[in-house]
Design goal:
455 residues; alpha/beta; TIM Barrel; Arc Repressor Mutant, subunit A; 2 domains; nine-stranded mixed β-sheet; three-stranded antiparallel β-sheet; 38% helix; 21% strand
Length: 455
């Protein structure tokens, strides 16, 4: 088995850095962005497929660890108002993007399952009214298992959803109480069974290590529960990033409850070893998939992509986002909606769109985006491909960056020759660090305070 866990190397390179769901990252988006750039770029890509993301910001209760953009409420009527405004945004965007076929749809949050079946049906109806869904569309939704009925899986399948992501995080009751997320593992197991019987093609489970009161014994039981009882197609194993200055809800988690850095590393090691021992393949940094899953196949074939939703097999699709904080990526243009619900409503009333900031990528951004994507996804970069795509001499263009790779080369983590750059399997957990060598924006090191720890 590959040794990912050399403590000296992990300690040496444990710094803060981006997760590179995009390059440049969202912290580079500016309010001075020309909002017409999105429409201009679309004219160049009018026949290309779309991936659509809908952000549902509502949650029934506050999970203390969460850093997502969310609104905690028990009033379902707020979702009705939100859907009213989503319809405004969707109808307006459809004037520009509606002729493009939608091949992928994802509902995230917040908690999309905050919506009732009736509200979800309304949302799907308005989307299909304004956009053309492909026959083989991939439709996924995130589920909070605490506030749903077993029948929801069947109802979602009837609406066309075929992929499911369930937030589990940890199955231990003490850990759940500490993060204010108490839920029944037995119910989740039954829900997964219902989803499989209803015809869902893929089921993902989210886990987090580094949570309060987690020990190796406790997390080992969680891993057993998930692999044996739930047996999902994919597992996302995320590191808890404790940043209470940025996320006020995390102040309810006492520092003394958290595992030490060495204990957290041991939890990560336990997670990776357990999941790979049970037949899952490590995809990228924090995703695992069964060998026959399309993510695993894509990585083996060097065709894996990464976008604002994480690892995907459809990264070549443009992304169109709706709702508060939603990000769009159309060609060489990024845009993001306002995060404030009040401001979202106001902007739609006044302007018909809710774009708050964005960025038009420069030629240099495009080159570096491609380089970082190849390294992040496939741990390999063919320099000749980059040279053909962008008409550059790779080693000349990146002469400074290649020098900055020297520590990784010295430590046996990276090989660099005239044809390619290859990341060793042992360096998989440090791929963010390696990509940071090609990030032109991180030369301003103050920015790194805005990112989570790499390990």
């Amino acid at each position: 088995m590959t040794n990912f866990f050399d403590p000296k190397l992990l300690s040496k390179y444990d710094t803060s850095g981006p997760r590179y769901t995009s390059y440049p990252t969202a912290v580079e988006f500016k309010e001075s962005f020309d909002r017409r750039d999105l429409e201009r770029e679309n004219k160049l890509r009018a026949a290309e497929p779309l991936s659509v993301y809908i952000h549902i910001p509502f949650c029934h209760s506050l999970c203390y660890y969460c850093g997502c953009n969310k609104i905690v409420t028990r009033h379902s009527s707020k979702a009705d108002i939100y859907l009213d405004y989503l319809e405004i945004e969707i109808s307006q965007r459809a004037k520009t993007f509606g002729s493009r076929p939608v091949h992928q749809l994802h509902l995230g949050g917040g908690t999309p399952s905050f919506l009732s079946a009736k509200q979800l049906t309304r949302l799907m109806t308005m989307l299909k009214k304004h956009f053309v869904f492909s026959l083989n569309i991939e439709m996924s939704i995130e589920i909070d298992p605490r506030k749903v009925e077993l029948e929801l899986a069947v109802e979602l399948a009837k609406m066309g959803f075929n992929r499911l992501s369930i937030g589990v995080q940890d199955t231990n009751e003490n850990v759940q109480r500490a993060i204010n997320r108490e839920q029944s593992t037995e119910f989740i197991s039954l829900f997964v069974q219902q989803a499989e019987q209803a015809g869902f093609e893929s089921i993902n489970v989210d886990l987090i290590y580094g949570l309060p009161h987690q020990t190796k014994e406790i997390f080992s039981k969680t891993l057993f529960d998930v692999t044996k009882e739930l047996d999902p197609d994919r597992i996302s194993l995320f590191s808890y990033a404790h940043m209470p200055v940025i996320f006020p809800s995390q102040r309810k988690i006492r520092d003394g409850w958290l595992p030490s850095s060495d204990e957290k590393l041991a939890l990560m090691k336990l997670g990776i070893e357990t999941l790979t021992r049970h037949g899952y393949e490590l995809i990228g940094m924090d995703h695992f998939a069964k060998p026959d899953d399309e993510l695993a196949r894509a990585q083996r074939e060097g065709k894996l992509h990464r976008n604002f939703q994480g690892y995907t097999t459809h990264g070549e699709y443009d992304l169109l986002g709706f709702g508060t904080s939603a990000i769009s990526s159309i060609g060489r243009v990024y845009s993001q909606n306002t995060k404030s619900l009040t401001d979202y409503y106001r902007r739609l009333d006044e302007y018909g769109n809710a774009v708050d900031k964005g960025k038009r990528l420069s030629f240099d951004d495009l080159i570096r985006r491609q380089v970082i994507k190849e390294i992040m996804c496939n741990l390999y970069l063919d320099k000749k491909v980059i040279e053909r795509l962008f008409d550059i001499r790779f080693d000349d263009y990146f002469s400074y960056e290649l020098v900055s790779l020297s520590p990784f080369i010295h430590d046996g983590l990276v090989t660099n020759n005239r044809e390619n750059i290859r990341v060793s399997p042992e360096a998989r957990l440090l791929v963010r660090n390696i990509c940071m060598s090609f990030d032109a924006y991180l030369k301003n090191h103050i920015q790194q305070k805005r990112f989570s720890r790499v390990i």
